[in-house]
Amino acid sequence: MEAGAAMTERVQVEIVFALANKQTLLTVTVDTGASIDDVIAASGLAERYPDESLQLLETGIWGHPAARDHRVKQGDRVELYRQLQRDPREARRELAQSGRTMRKPEEG
What we know:
Blueprint: E1 10-18, E2 23-31, H1 36-43, H2 45-48, E3 58-61, E4 64-65, E5 77-81, H3 88-97
Parallel strand pairs: 1-5
Antiparallel strand pairs: 1-2, 3-4, 3-5
């Protein structure tokens, strides 16, 4: 490294993306001041899931909606939210009306 060159500080964040049958949780190191979009790009998720339109998904930090230009900080967990195929509350309501539950038979 050159004398006098400033070292860029880095932060570690997690990024999580879940499909119906698979979850991916990665730790990514990015420059301080990086945005959610920067984290997504650095994660390689677009290459892992080329059939998914990641750029269209809503994003958040630790379960709270956050814009893609939101600056991440050390320890953040970036989440990509897929559209649900069915509202779970509605599914439970329909099951209850038919006298069934969402529990598996072995759960009692």
